[in-house]
């Protein structure tokens, strides 16, 4: 995609953002609002960093892996203890050091979507130093296998090969409409005082509501007080399309890494197929895309969100033609959106500025663009990627944008926005 006049300017500015947010061992999602290391952010960041410094991209992923638990989970957040007063819930909320099998660094007990093995494979491929790349592959393959084993062993709580999320934070799409009904069944009164430290850095209208935060904290408290054990009677248990799509996509990457390190790629390919097939249970014909399944009630959550478009990343997806039509149709891109809205623009409660309830995010647009290219829509993929990098540069790498106008929202100098912009500009 080289040759476009401002590609260099995009890369230069994006690299400056990643340099600014680099701590020496990992990249903060954004200084201020997110002062620790976040799991799926680091994998997206590594995807962009690999073009400028494969070595730093390797360090980014390995610094996250230093937070892995003995049961294989890669935590949502690896805390920097020096910044524990800057984000809630912090390390003192989780008290991970009091549990057996936890690492020496403090972490959250929850997880985030598994895009790590995919990122590790892309970083490996981008590293021109063959010895360094091979060493990296040898070091990361076993912990990445353990991570997938955790998801497929302890998290398949819905009598299906699909992994469950036990908290909205685990989906990475915290206040997505997919979680409304399940959250409505929960109390919004945690014992822990809900510190809204986030509101120092972002306006209330752009962040989850007080009620949502009450429920987020209540649920996190329940999970922590149960020693972060995964049981099928947890109060929030859902199967999410993006979590499982990234699991399946990452299994393909693990199969490639297995080949490199002399392990058997067969089980990874088989698991890829199994999750791809199982995802069909989340397909909702009336909406033309995948939705979440509430394991507690057994019901599908009939809301069209960007999560339900990401199965397009899977090469052998049976519903690909329908998903492409839905992506290009009135709920998402049909009205001329510049990037992919996080929620159905035709829904009565669509809100173009409210976090995961309407705005377009750069990581999700990048994922959907990949999927559209894979399934025969290169023109739309190119247009989305062009808009992605242009809006990123124009608005100082915002967290998310109004999908119709491109108006920026949330924090600025946001790391994965910069990383995605580098990836599509080089
Ligand atoms: C909770 C760091 C994270 C992203 C999530 C995004 C937001 C955190 C928050 O920021 O979530 O994990 O405080 O709102 O929703 O996807 O990983 O960038």
Structure description:
This protein has 426 residues and is mainly alpha-helical. The chain has a single domain (7-425), classed as Glycosyltransferase, CATH 1.50.10. The chain is 42% helix and 5% strand. It contains 14 helices and eleven strands. The chain has a four-stranded antiparallel β-sheet with strand order 3-4-7-8. Strand 7 (292-294) and strand 8 (300-301) form a beta hairpin. Helix 13 crosses helix 14. It is globular and about 50 Å long. The N and C termini lie close together (6 Å). The model has no long low-confidence stretch (mean pLDDT 96).
How are the secondary structure elements laid out?
Blueprint: H1 7-20, E1 37-38, H2 39-49, H3 54-65, E2 77-78, H4 91-94, H5 116-126, H6 130-153, E3 164-165, H7 180-184, H8 210-225, E4 238-239, H9 241-261, H10 266-278, E5 283-284, E6 289-290, E7 292-294, E8 300-301, H11 320-328, E9 360-361, H12 362-374, H13 378-394, E10 400-401, E11 408-409, H14 415-425
Antiparallel strand pairs: 1-2, 3-4, 4-7, 5-6, 7-8, 9-10, 10-11
Helix pairs in contact: 1-13, 1-14, 2-3, 2-5, 2-14, 3-5, 3-6, 5-6, 5-9, 6-9, 9-10, 12-13, 13-14
The structure holds (2R)-2-(alpha-D-glucopyranosyloxy)-3-hydroxypropanoic acid (9WN).
Protein name: Mannosylglycerate hydrolase MGH1-like glycoside hydrolase domain-containing protein
Keywords: Glycosidase, Hydrolase
Organism: Georgenia subflava
